[in-house]
Design a protein that fits this description.
By secondary structure, the chain is an alpha+beta fold. Helix content is 35%, strand content 24%. β1 and β2 form a beta hairpin. The longest helix is centred in the C-terminal third of the chain and has 15 residues.
Length: 127
């Protein structure tokens, strides 16, 4: 189980990560490139779950390097990692923080940072 405090701690350990806000939700970026953001479900997204209970908030959206990387993350079957129709053809996964293991969360966020950070930061990162 992970928390927003875990997200903040991990992000705070990554070079030049800036926390911001977009549409009232926390966001994290490096030199203007997005890494992750809190995301709530729209009414339409909730309807798409039908009779199934949607994952519990808070939900974190985490960018992936590309769609191939996204498919690999999803195929790994990490507890708490999923996608929804709205994210089809978009390189990001969703994370149910109350379910994901903190080590898996850290791996996802570090990978997202590595994909977004410029080469000079990546080269100096010891992770």
């Amino acid at each position: 189980m992970s928390t927003l405090e875990d997200v903040a701690r991990i992000m705070g350990e990554l070079p030049e990560v800036v926390e911001g806000e977009h549409h009232g939700h926390a966001t994290w970026s490096v030199r203007g490139k997005g890494i992750a953001w809190l995301r709530s479900f729209s009414k339409a997204a909730l309807r798409r779950f039908g009779d199934h209970t949607p994952p519990a908030e808070p939900i974190l959206a985490v960018n992936t390097k590309d769609l191939h990387d996204k498919e690999g993350v999803l195929a790994a079957g990490l507890n708490g990692v999923f996608t929804i129709e709205h994210f089809n053809n978009y390189p990001a996964v969703l994370v149910e923080l109350g379910v994901i293991d903190p080590r898996d969360l850290r791996d996802l966020l570090v990978d997202a940072w590595l994909a977004a950070a410029p080469a000079d930061l990546v080269d100096g990162f010891s992770g």
